[in-house]
Amino acid sequence: MAYETILCETKGRVAIITLSRPDALNALNTQLVGELAEALTGYDRDDAIGAIVITGSEKAFAAGADIKEMAPKSFMDVYREDFAANWDVAARCRKPVIAAVAGYCLGGGCELAMQCDFILAADTAKFGQPEITLGIMPGIGGTQRLTRFVGKSKAMEMCLTGRMMDAEEAERSGLVSRVVPAADLLTEAEKVASKIASLSLPAVMMTKETVNRAYETTLSEGILFERRVFHSMFATEDQKEGMEAFSEKRKPNFKNR
Ligand code: CAA
Q: Where are the domains of the chain?
């Protein structure tokens, strides 16, 4: 499938999607989000893929939703089309999705990165929710996800002022899992993605589903959910293989699907 706003490649069991609207710092418009959704859905269904990386350019992961596309819209336009309702494209993926972020990661770009399972940041990354400076507010989950990642005080300050966070502050406050030198970002992202993709896919997917449950439920319900999913893993061939391989002091040969 030929896309115009994203580039797709696979390396072994890892799919890499590169946001590619260089003239607009990868701003998310309807076309880009549509193409990203289609690519992600395809990889999610593809047995040959075990993990997905979303990245941008050296200058920008994405500088937000496309302001020029949004500018002429009226309240009735956005309300009637329920604008951005289906922009949770990465959050809908069942396989792990890693955001590899360099440069600007702002507004809808930061919201897209936060939909991913974790964010690996280059030391050049800058995160922010500058929508308030445009007379609007985040609309793809920013007020909710950023608050869960960094806590109310910092999220409130960032959403109310539009202040950007550098990579070091983002790591310190729990927004990103790790910061790496910009030159190593893609290599590191591919390395961690291929490690995940080499493991038991059902175990990976169920673990992802269970960690995400922590954001949606109480502690006791979450722990019960975890235990039930944990029990169900004993029905998989990969559980037998993983434990036998440990006893036999060899590498497990997971079915990966
Ligand atoms: N939408 C559309 N175009 C954008 C864009 C965006 N979000 N961000 C940058 N661009 C375009 C610029 O208009 C410019 O295009 P032209 O050359 O045609 O003028 C090009 O990308 C390069 O940008 P700059 O010249 O501004 O680059 P810079 O290095 O001087 O500044 C920046 C970089 C600080 C990121 C600046 O571009 C900027 O502030 N961008 C907007 C950031 C923003 O406000 N994001 C939030 C968008 S709203 C949103 O996301 C809502 C939501 O939650 C749904």
A: 6-197, 200-248
